[in-house]
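Lecture 7 notes. Example A: sequence first, then its structure tokens.
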Amino acid sequence: MTKLRSKHILGISHLSAEEISFILDTAESLKEILDRPIKKVPPLRGRTIISLFFEPSTRTKLSFDLAAKRLSADSISISAKTSSVVKGETLIDTVRNIQAMRPDIIVIRHSMSGVPHLISRYIDASVINAGDGINEHPSQALLDLYTVREHFGHIEGLKVTIVGDIAHSRVAHSDILGFNKMGAEVTVCGPATMIPPYVEELGCKVSLNLKEAVKDSDVVIALRIQKERQGRSLIPSEREYSTVFGISREVMSYLKDTAILMHPGPINRGVEMSSEVVDSERSIILDQVTNGVAIRMALFTLLLADTGEN
């Protein structure tokens, strides 16, 4: 495979298994740049990447910015508070004005599902979805897939359990689609109030019992409770959630001896997992952070490096 079918990265649902493998392979070839004394290569020199974030972000925003700089692109970040949207300008007018400045890629995060898809219809630049509402977070799923493949050498046949607020997590949505496409067996687990009724249609199993769900798992991905997207409390208390669905040393004993623990961040220690588990040898959460830069470098490279146009 030599290129992606689309000039946009809007969701895992739009990518084939072959395209996902292509992205992971590209990230693998680029990752060594991050360990060089001088962490910079020239393939995207003269290209412009604009990050437009309407929600708070640390890991995702920083890794996109670093990925652009590692490839020598001009990277500019705009937050909602500093954009003209606060003055009443519509989002479409904002991105049209940005497009008039001729960027090559716009990376966007927004609280409303579907926004990246909408703006991709109005601009010529490539659009990368950095998280839209409760819909998708494709680059997070890709880095999760890459991290698992890097650790085990493969994805197909692995048992992956995703625990937490499935209904309001765009990471869960993208991870389910991604791991399913790559041949893993996916189970989701959480309070019944946080499991969407349609989730099995995405290609996963559902369990409301944590110990049964994680039994013999190869990978456990814990998610935080998405309070900002719920509108109302869906659990009696965080303490009760931690008791029933928190990942503890006891829960980890039900996993395979070779199993790993992951989390997209930010972590609420003592809620979705104990500090002991977060800092354990079986946790590869910081590997995910490192691999996030490699994956985003791969996306920029595949969208721009081999062509002279979008």
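Example B, a different protein, same format:
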Amino acid sequence: MNQLATTRLWLRRNLFSDAFSSLTTLMLVAAAFWWLPGLIDWMLLQAVFKTDANACHASNHAGACWGVVAEKYRFILFGRYPHAEQWRPLLATALLLLAIVASGLRLLARGPLLATWALALPAFFVLMGGGHFGLSPVESDQWGGLPLTLLLATMGMLLAFPLAILVALGRQSGLPLLRTLCAIYVELVRGVPLISVLFLASFLFPIILPQGFAIDVLLRVQGAIVLFAAAYLSETIRGGLQAIPAGQHDAASALGLGRWQAMRWIILPQALRAVIPSMMNSAVSVFKDTSLVTVVSLYELTGSLSLALAGDAEWRSYYLEGYLFIAMIYWIGCYAMSRFSRNLELQRGPLRT
């Protein structure tokens, strides 16, 4: 009986709290009853799951052709990486995901966690690039799929975070020149779309380099993502710094702490805690924005799908199923990050003023 009362209370608060909410709930339920049967029929009941292109053609798109995923999943996940060596990006991805999950779920203490990252990142590059321990070298332009997506997103946030903190502190500095330079950087980067920054790093930047001096395109694109993410993240952190009450600064001074000691031990931890949801929103954006690197000939998940289907007439017409498979991967990643953010908020507790 208590469970029934709890359920009724939850329904009343979340779905039927007022007339507008009740009408919206009923409309959504009606839309689900109208739309879901056809979707289930297309996705499951009439779908083709085996790798048989003739069976997919025979269905004439009456059902989903999941056979294209079963046929092309290795190319989608690993791109143009040599087929015989694809155990290497698989292991590299597993190591990077292990470090990410250990951080997200807080499975390790700080020391072992730092050691995990110190081992996982070099191991990732050794496995992907080769040239050591008897592994054949593989150029970075052959990296693709899920490993490239994870690399760009993970390194983008790891490197952007300390830079964003420095820029946020610079914008609050008492030095006018430093404050102006940080503001110019933020406004310049935020005033252009990411795709233009990627074009700049990929095509224009090599032109202005000295003759005979070259930087790998993957490094240039990674740097562009870091600078772009740091500009947005710095404003999030600056907002957190401004939200800290003046009394916290006064209390730190009363304890005899210097300006940087107060920032390190009192102000900055509270500011970062206050903006956890916004920082995670930036991480989700970076994770999804990695799909834009396709325009500069780096083939992450979406680019790998285009390569996999472009030259295969048998499966070329089944892009939708491939994109749904990729969308599921992105959704799992974004949902996992949102849950991590929520758990971190609950563990840390609300900001006390």
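Note on Example B: The radius of gyration is 25 Å. The CA atoms of residues 48 and 189 lie 46 Å apart.
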